[in-house]
Amino acid sequence: MCGIIGVTGGRAVTDVLLQGLERLEYRGYDSAGVVVQTGTELWRARAARGTSSLAELRRIVDGAPRPSAAGIGHTRWATHGHPTEANAHPHLDCSGRVAVVHNGIIENYRELAAKLAAGGHVFSSDTDTEVFAHLLEDELTGGASLAEAVRATLRDIRGAFAVAVVWAGEPGTLVAARRVSPLIVGVSDGEGSEDGPEAYVASDIPAILGRTRTLFAIDDDQVVELRPGVMRVRTLAGKAIEVPQLSVDYDLEAAEKGGFADFMSKEMHEQPRAVGDTLLGRLQGDGTLLLDELRIGPDELRQVERVLVVACGSSYHAGLVAKHAVEHWARLGCEVDIASEFRYRDPVLDERTLVIGVSQSGETIDTLQALREARQWGAKVLVVANVVDSSMAREADGVLYTHAGPEIGVAATKTHLAQIAALEVLALYLAQLRGGLSPADARLLLADLAGLPDLVQQALDRDADVARVAERFADVRDFFFLGRHVGLPVALEGALKLKEIAYVRAEGYPAGELKHGPIALIEPGTVVIAVATRTPVWEKMMANVAEVRSRGATVVLLANDGHDETAEQADEVLWVPETHPLFAPVVDVVPLQQFAYHVGRGRGLDVDRPRNLAKTVTVE
Ligand code: F6R
């Protein structure tokens, strides 16, 4: 977790840092801080005020303007040490001349800290990161350059990191490196800008996209040395290497709120376009699917005997929908695993297993490590990701991008819908390759798929109805979300959204499983939200609804337009347009997102930045 940024050159070092941190805030906001080089000294400012950390940091920095050659900044999601100012980055060595920002976890920091303390170093935080500053101090005292010191230090460090460092002894030099955690480098030659040449590092592209489009992704155990307009990359052993330039497919404006009250509502309203763009160019008029960018060829995919999906959170729920689609259309066995669990058992995989990683960010450490594990077992790895050139996308055998654009709100909305759309396409593609889909059937299904953006828009247009239902239940502190078949992942996603956006306890459950225990919790007044749209098990779902109603539950049903039989069993109805049952999750999730949004807003919460969460989870 955490976001890092660094810049060297130009006339506005602190502005670049603060603006970058604002764009990285989705990665954590427990505290924030910057260090800048002024003359031959470092100046540090930090703030630990939860969601207002960055505003406070800006106040401090603006109150003490100073010309700077280079600087680094950090926005923190606490792992080691409380979210206090003392634990906020950047961290300094004993002399206050070396500063470090870090995203990740240094696993052997206790051992390293003990050694450093025995050697006379004094620590001023509880973080794992601070050991890095003191290790650098030792190397620099021994006469190394900053880049040499970083390379030497990283050889002793175990764990995950993206780091950026500055040293008062080398004004204008910024050094950064990574292992596992993401790191992007940008270089600007200054042409056409009053600021002159600059160079940047950041955890993610939007943080620096406004400054340059000359971007590079740094790989594991590479160390980059930056001076204004100049980048040099070396391995830990000191060997110079070239890194390829990245292709960037979104612009900065798309990352701004565009007139909406918050990113979450903006991004929910972008869902028809996100789904449409994800389908674009992949559905052919003749009923065939075109996935020519996949990197895994048709022959290889025909060899696949089994599919395994690994993912976390909302991406895991998209995976649960994919299971239905892959099994139904491609007739391949498909299991879905929570990525953080997958790695720590003995999965049975071989070269005929297709492992699909689903990840908006392409950086979630649990999923990334699960996919690495899968490759070691010889499985083919395909990633469904939203962020182009993200770590997973680069490392996998193949990639299928969702084209949802950047998502800034911490809760997944448009990327979740785009993931389901992409996975449906993939399932149909596998079916097509395996000869399991007649051209006539395919044409009908593709027409349904192509109609999804319009249906998502229709669902969004009922926002006022959902807001009214949300208001009715604004004070309820416990919800059950029930679903069966593809309605189950929808129910799970609805419950997750309510938990994270509105801080309301919500249990997502398979409706048929309720009678095996949890029905004991149903009593008069319990609110149950059930996905009762027309899946092949609608009748069974309604029998489960009757079970909770007869025990006094207040029932909100998600029902297909005009389906009065469903509505008759409900205290409140959330209407959604109907589509093919296996595509229905793309539409049905929408009112549940809106419900969570309105309950959260009604409670005065910051729906874009829920407490304790981060957009990209790069710790296990
Ligand atoms: C929920 C949410 C998270 C993510 C999860 C995986 O709204 O956003 O549950 O879905 O952290 O993230 P990615 O998809 O980036 O791997």
Question: How would you describe this protein?
Answer:
The chain is α/β, with parallel strands linked by helices. It has 3 domains: 3-255, Aminohydrolase, N-terminal nucleophile (Ntn) domain (Glutamine Phosphoribosylpyrophosphate, subunit 1, domain 1); 266-450, Rossmann fold; 461-602, Glucose-6-phosphate isomerase like protein, domain 1 (Rossmann fold, 3-Layer(aba) Sandwich), CATH 3.40.50.10490. The longest helix is centred in the last third of the chain and has 20 residues, at 414-433. Fructose -6-phosphate binds at residues 312-315, 359-361, 364, 367, 411-412, 496, 500, 616-617.
What about the largest sheet? Answer: 7 strands, antiparallel
What is the CATH homology-level superfamily of the largest domain? Aminohydrolase, N-terminal nucleophile (Ntn) domain
Strand content: 15-25%
- Distance from N terminus to C terminus (CA atoms, Å) equals 10 Å
Number of helices, where a helix is a run of at least 4 consecutive DSSP H or I residues: 20
Provide the CATH architecture of the largest domain: 4-Layer Sandwich
Spatial strand sequence of the major β-sheet: 3-2-4-1-10-9-11
Mean pLDDT: 93
CATH topology of the largest domain: Glutamine Phosphoribosylpyrophosphate, subunit 1, domain 1
Bound molecules: fructose -6-phosphate
Uncertain regions: pLDDT < 50 for 5+ in a row? none
Count of DSSP strands: 24
Rough shape? globular
